[in-house]
């Protein structure tokens, strides 16, 4: 079997181990959740930002959340499933697709998509901190919005505090509306399904899921249209920064790696890059195999003895033949003069 010395960067394309991925994702999500709580800001400032967004949309006639909220409020058959989707898919489908990518796709594809998701989440957290925004459902009733999560709260586990379970509303920041990471994460899921899904249903889900979530966040009065657009822009920026973030982490890993790779390099020193099956084993390799040299010497001595014996036997036979011939010649020679006489 040929032996090839492994390259220093050979482990870069290996699949990340789950016991390192889970803590990483958990830490980022914990930081995201804690950041949402710490970035609550002043309520009056958040309301001012929400009204500014609404008035800007109304001037451009892009306030799509108003007719959608009327539709969801007046038709429970639409509003209740929308509330379930808002309260669950964001937290269930996204990690499920991330796990599928880790298990089924190439390591390089998983690393990029995972980094894209994490970087975009951090960008969204910065947006929540710099621009706290009151969602439509928390505006004054004179603006015409109804909180469908509160309206249909008896059908699910949520209360009147966004999608938080009843009694846990204090653990969420209800003024973290800009950008909408519900839409951003749904777009990430759609791209992952489109690029790596094999079936037709995967392609349909890749297109349909982000669109449905965009309608849901507006129809439930949790986000403005511009919040959804900002969620798409956040994912676009995250996709641009994912590559540099991967290169930065790889550079840091390479800087910390030499101390770990020194023993491996020392063990591989002096080993040929490729040793064929029929190549002669080097002297160093013979020294590693006990008694190999002794067996070779014994074999040479045995072969030499056999050759000498063969030559000796041949010489003996030849000698006897020569003696007999000489004797016969001598006899013949003595007899010839006698016959002449």
UniProtKB/TrEMBL annotation:
The chain crosses the membrane at residues 84-101, 113-131, 175-193, 200-218, 224-246. InterPro entries: Aur1/Ipt1, IPC_Synthase-Related. It comes from the Bacteria. Residues 259-341 are annotated as: Disordered. It is found in: Membrane. Keywords: Membrane, Transmembrane, Transmembrane helix. The keyword Membrane applies. Residues 52-240 form the Inositolphosphotransferase Aur1/Ipt1 domain. Pfam families: PAP2_3. Residues 277-310 have a biased composition (Basic and acidic residues). Residues 320-341 have a biased composition (Low complexity). This is Inositolphosphotransferase Aur1/Ipt1 domain-containing protein. It comes from Streptomyces iranensis.
């Amino acid at each position: 079997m040929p032996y090839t010395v492994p390259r220093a960067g050979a482990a870069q394309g290996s699949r990340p181990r789950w016991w390192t991925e889970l803590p990483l994702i958990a830490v980022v999500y914990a930081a995201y959740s804690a950041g949402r709580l710490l970035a609550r800001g002043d309520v009056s400032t958040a309301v001012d930002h929400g009204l500014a967004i609404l008035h800007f949309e109304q001037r451009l006639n892009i306030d799509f959340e108003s007719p959608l909220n009327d539709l969801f409020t007046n038709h429970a058959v639409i509003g209740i499933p929308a509330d379930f989707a808002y309260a669950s898919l964001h937290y269930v489908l996204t990690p499920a697709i991330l796990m599928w990518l880790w298990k089924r796709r190439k390591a390089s594809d998983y690393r990029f998509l995972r980094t894209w998701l994490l970087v975009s989440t951090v960008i969204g957290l910065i947006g929540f901190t710099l621009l706290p925004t009151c969602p439509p459902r928390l505006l004054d009733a004179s603006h015409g919005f109804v909180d469908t999560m509160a309206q249909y709260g008896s059908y699910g586990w949520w209360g009147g505090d966004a999608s938080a379970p009843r009694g846990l509303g204090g653990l969420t920041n209800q003024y973290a509306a800009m950008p909408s990471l519900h839409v951003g994460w749904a777009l990430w899921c759609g791209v992952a399904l489109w690029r790596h899904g094999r079936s037709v249903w995967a392609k349909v889900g890749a297109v349909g899921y982000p669109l449905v979530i965009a309608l849901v966040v507006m129809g439930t009065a949790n986000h403005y249209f511009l919040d959804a657009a900002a969620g798409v822009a956040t994912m676009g920026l995250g996709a641009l920064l994912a590559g540099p973030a991967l290169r930065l982490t790889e550079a840091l890993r390479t800087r910390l790696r030499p101390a770990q790779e020194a023993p491996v390099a020392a063990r591989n020193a002096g080993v040929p890059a490729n040793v064929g099956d029929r190549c002669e084993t080097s002297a160093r390799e013979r020294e590693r195999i006990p008694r190999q040299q002794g067996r070779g010497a014994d074999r040479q001595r045995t072969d030499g003895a056999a050759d000498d014996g063969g030559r000796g036997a041949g010489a003996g036979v030849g000698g006897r033949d020569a003696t007999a011939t000489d004797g016969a010649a001598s006899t013949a020679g003595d007899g010839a003069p006698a016959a002449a006489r």
